[in-house]
């Protein structure tokens, strides 16, 4: 069984609709969906706030590349264009971690190297796995305790179904 943690983000157009489309795309493999968070952009590009969420997915015969490909297919279906690094996007699907796998392949770095510094990933991850461990980095709770969560707000009025 392959178990992956995926991070979703959108800051253009119907943000919740794009996240929901990703959830629907992963429906057969879906184990858990976090709350939706409204988050101030990190990365230095001036842009609209994001909606972020985290999914846990599982499939019996998948490997880590399967999850990357599935995420990229869904980004493409959403009409994503790669214009600016860390810039606006209709849908971003990052593979945060797959089981305990470490990968330094540039097309699939695992765990995703941005994760330890991103409250926009760690906070929603804790919703679905309160005892989560980021392989090689320790508990998600401890990683999050080092970070500011200013600008990361749970949207109780929005939900992915
Ligand atoms: N763990 C991963 N999850 C998703 N894409 C990855 C991962 N590791 C490497 N990549 C590669 O990153 C590229 C996509 O980068 P993308 O434009 O989505 O980055 P970004 O989301 O803007 O920035 P960041 O990766 O820092 O969140 C793809 O070529 C993909 O193969
Ligand atoms: N808050 C927030 N900021 C971002 C995000 C994101 O998902 N959330 N993704 C980016 C590009 O990957 C750039 N900046």
UniProtKB/TrEMBL annotation:
<keyword id="KW-0808">Transferase</keyword>
<keyword id="KW-0289">Folate biosynthesis</keyword>
<comment type="pathway">
    <text>Cofactor biosynthesis; tetrahydrofolate biosynthesis; 2-amino-4-hydroxy-6-hydroxymethyl-7,8-dihydropteridine diphosphate from 7,8-dihydroneopterin triphosphate: step 4/4.</text>
</comment>
<keyword id="KW-0067">ATP-binding</keyword>
<keyword id="KW-0418">Kinase</keyword>
<protein>
    <recommendedName>
        <fullName>2-amino-4-hydroxy-6-hydroxymethyldihydropteridine diphosphokinase</fullName>
        <ecNumber>2.7.6.3</ecNumber>
    </recommendedName>
</protein>
<dbReference type="InterPro" id="IPR035907">
    <property type="entry name" value="Hppk_sf"/>
</dbReference>
<dbReference type="Pfam" id="PF01288">
    <property type="entry name" value="HPPK"/>
</dbReference>
<keyword id="KW-0547">Nucleotide-binding</keyword>
<dbReference type="InterPro" id="IPR000550">
    <property type="entry name" value="Hppk"/>
</dbReference>
<feature type="domain" description="7,8-dihydro-6-hydroxymethylpterin-pyrophosphokinase">
    <location>
        <begin position="85"/>
        <end position="96"/>
    </location>
</feature>
